[in-house]
Write a structure and sequence with these properties.
The N terminus is likely disordered. The protein is mainly alpha-helical and 429 residues long. Among the domains are: 121 residues; 128 residues, no CATH class. It has 19 helices and no strands.
Amino acid sequence: MLKLAKKSIRYIMNASIEEDSKKEKDLAKMKRNALILLGFAVVLFVVANVYKIDWLKAFSEAAMVGGIADWFAVVALFRHPLGIPIPHTALIPSNKDKIGENLGNFVSDEFLTREKLELKIEQFNVAVKASDWLIDEKNANTVANLIAENVIPGLLKTIDDEEVQHFIQTQFSGKLSKVNFAEWIALGLESLAKSDKQEELVTNVLRTLIVELQNNKHLIGEKVKSSTPFLSFGLADKKITEGIFNGLYNFLEQASHQDSIIRKKVNNYVVDFIIELKESPEMQQKVNDLVLGFANKKEVQDYISGIWLEIKTAIANDLNQKEESTIKNSIANMIQSFGKGIQADQLMMDKINNFIKNDVLSVLINNKKMIGELISSTVKSWDTDEVSKKLELEIGGDLQYIRINGTLVGGLVGLLIYAVELVLHNFIN
């Protein structure tokens, strides 16, 4: 999370630096244009004096006066013109604290009012704007990429594997110890006994045993041979083997028929076993101890511990696929689905808008004095030169039009005065 925060801050700072650089270039261009126009007025003034062109002289004189006067006025806002500490210049740096107080008071008293904010919130419709933003595929992918590239890997690196493995083992053992497996088995067997599946299952098991008995008849012979006296010279082995095989085969064959006495005894045993599982604490304890004993074996515990590492590796491998990442695409789809879900649920949209309108707005209104003081103290803490520079970057370009207009309008006014003077002169004479 810290890495994500640092990356976000760097991104914002880089974007701010690039934006400031562009503003500086635009400001320098506007200053250059205003200076070129003033220089052109100076050239006209020289030409007018050399060639004795009175109207051009009047125009250029007034243009130079207007241009220089407006240059002085614009510069006086941000600094002392030519570095000379003329009174009532460098207005912004000199009044920085007062500007901060007035700005804080303006925001808290004029902007942070319930009537105005409620109107703006209703017009803005936060729920619609937010859901529209989430539905947009580009925005959803941007958020998903941010989570997939920074949040999830950061969390995986932060998590201690041993602690997670210990937690999984502890939780697994703890949950198992609270489960009555005997009751579960009883419910499963009871459900099976009430259906035709039990008969089918027993029949299939018995038939499988018959097939396996036939396939392994030679093993019975080998066991009999190894167990009979050596002096019998193997004469009784075949008889004994055939007797054992036929006895087992006949038993299984008879048991495989559903109406046989053996099958009924098996069914009765299952019923008795179910009852014992449900009602006998001793049997329940034996079954539970058997399951817990198996679960606590080292092999099982190692397998459970390895689940986390497998999950972690699978997540990392998936995220490495970048645009093909299932996790990333799932997050993006989830974000879009969430946005669509909001728009489809008018009740939810109303809740969001009411939350912003009531709860968030109440917090702002109740703390508007503190917000105003925060703005004021923040402005006061700024460096005066930095404030002037920032403000000039924001509005300096537009202020250069004052210089340009001052030069042009001044020249036209000078020309108008010259014309009036000429008319009056001719009228008097």
